[in-house]
Amino acid sequence: MDTSSLDFSTYTQWLGILTLICLVLTILGFVFGWGIRFRLVGVTSFMVVLTAGIFALGLGLFTRTVVPGAVRFALVYDNGATQAVIAVPPKITESELEATLRQAADDLFSYGRNSIGGENQLTIRARVLLHPESGVSVPVYVGQVKRSLAKRDDDQMQIEIFPESLAKLEMNAKG
What we know:
Elements: H1 5-32, H2 37-60, E1 74-78, E2 83-87, H3 94-107, E3 121-133, E4 136-148, E5 158-161, H4 163-174
Parallel strand pairs: 2-3
Antiparallel strand pairs: 1-2, 3-4, 4-5
Helix pairs in contact: 1-2
């Protein structure tokens, strides 16, 4: 059985309504001095916990999409808001880089990210570490993607590949 977060939204709404009904019954129990009024407190408390749990479960169940052609990447830096950096392998092609940036944009999206300074975009930069000589590492940024912080399915994603940096990688691999 396939359960989506939309189903959990519906369940949360119905449980919220039932919780409110229990709360009204509990208040009536105290007003009229019913003998089960303290049991109603327990039932209402349980309903609040159950509703909150189903709501939280609905937030956490998002399917992970796989972008064809993407290579593995490592998250190097993430400020939890609008900036992130990933590391990609040095022998990456332009098409693999584009697919990897799309994958990273999907993987790093979260509703919990905050905009800083009014910027409402998440910028993810891809980099490769080059070692021109022993003991020296030089980061080379090969591309970046900018996506919305608010929409999970962002059709306005801006992917930018830096061809001069990819050429640097090729020259480093040759010599």
